Amino acid sequence: MMSGTSLDGIDAALVRIVPRQQSYTVGLLRLQSRPYDGVLREELAANLPPHSGSVAAVARLHRALGDAYARAASETIGADRVDFVASHGQTLWHDGGRHVTLQLGDAFAIREATGVSVCYDFRSADCAAGGQGAPLVAYVDALLLGDASEDRAALNLGGIANVTLLSRGAPPSDATAFDTGPGNMLLDAFVAARTHGAAGCDEGGRLALAGRVDERALRAMLADEYFSLPPPKSTGRERFGAQFLATHDDALRPLRLEDGAATLAELTAASVAQAFTRSAFAPARVIVSGGGARNAALLERLAAHLRPAIVESSDARGLPAQAKEAMAFAVLGYETLRGRASGVPRATGAARAAMLGAIAPANLPALLQKLRLEVDAKDEGADDWHA
User: pTM here?
Assistant: First the structure.
């Protein structure tokens, strides 16, 4: 289960995972996207940057989010049987440079609702090892999307955009990954503010496609120092939340809704392209996932900036764009139970590859025994593993 910086709710994916030597075959059985209810979303927004929350408010949110994840898990599982749940939780605070991160969502509430072990708190181990705790899916990107014949990039366009650079034939430990800057976060916030909440995003990119980029506003926003920082680096709502729009209000306020949307979509595309240039990495193929993969304006601008690279949705690689991040954390949960390190120091800056995640156990010995038998089988007749 995955909740991103966009605060739109919970993506819960029922996943079949089959080990294949050092990698996996991963298939999506079911995806349910459960929006946060209005009250919970308002409480989250009131305690996220630029606002500050109390200890009591954080504790209440932790429990309320745990209950929300528990309901999402139960509804997604339905009548099926699962072996474990992997929950990323909702990031409340992230300061990668100081190795501080906090994800909320009580794993024990999920365990009580499902009766199975829950893997959670994936970022803290990397922070403890001196890393930024993000981005974490570089390991899974390398396992599932790396290729022996071409250089690729896995680009996730959630609230924040992050990219994994995959050199041809390289092992997961050689992957480089970092947050490039805003994905959908600024665009969503701008549209919501301009429409007084009538729309929460630029659905399909229709607004941006109908608008024109304001070059002055774009230059001002691209001057933010984050874009010129070298990897490893990570960011979030603390930098690219509503306060970023407020900083550039003089440039954005005079723009029509469509022109503001076009300018903010261009900011995302241009900052991604700059990240490739600064990294001296020219991928043959860019595989896009996340909510931004459904934004035609974003994909159009990315394709223009990144030519001659092919820009395609992760759907084409068997990883549905909306489900890809949730599926990635299912694999990370499997690695936690397997006892393998899935942190990538080149991505996060950690001193070593950390084994990620904590476990809220339920009949854990039997689960680990089943896992060992499945990993040892490693053939087409292996029993399926569900998460």
Answer: 0.91
